[in-house]
Amino acid sequence: MSFWTRLFSAAANMFGPAPRPDMDGRPGRTDDAGFAAALIALSAKLAKADGVVTREEINAFRTIFTAPPEAQAGIARFFDLARKTTAGYKSYAKIVARKFRAQPATLEDVLDGLFYIALADGVVSPEEMEFLETTAEIFGFSEREFNRIKVSHMGRPADDPYLILGVDEDISDADLKRAYRRQAAANHPDRLVARGLPEQLQGLANHKMAMINRAYGEIVKARKAQLQTQ
User: Fold this and answer.
1) Mean pLDDT of all residues in the chain?
2) How far apart are CA 54 and CA 57, in angstroms?
């Protein structure tokens, strides 16, 4: 049975008349197809959080979740079904959290993808932010960790400008470059797959690398501008 057949089977089970034991966070086995189905549902319900699912949000989902042409229609039907309501999203978040409970970096990858979808229409509504905060809590992230991830997508506050790369403002140029290289190496597409992210989500790697490169570029540019004014 192919991955995509198993995914659609898992999707059908999720919307059956009764929840399965492994679909609500209680002990049970969730394979890659079940995880992928949960992630599709979680993405769709995030898009619905503010009441309106936009074309931009749908396109953002398609960017981070790669599927062959023959599977796209089935995924679209599942996405449409899942986006009808936000009900049950916590259960899907628990499935993802349990799948990667020992791999917080992968859970951060997933949260990055959800932020990408939320920001696709240009604004994160209060309802979407509550959805993201609750999902991050289920994933096991602290408030500070969530703020770091949020800042990397939405801009950093004036009192904590280097949160994107997880470094202090007074870091030396040499240490800054080392921190940037560590982040870039850790988020290379091959590394994401090696730490458990399904191949269908490699679009997340491109998004994360762009985010890291942009943050480093902004810091370097700001430091050069500061030197020129001295």
Assistant:
1) 79
2) 5
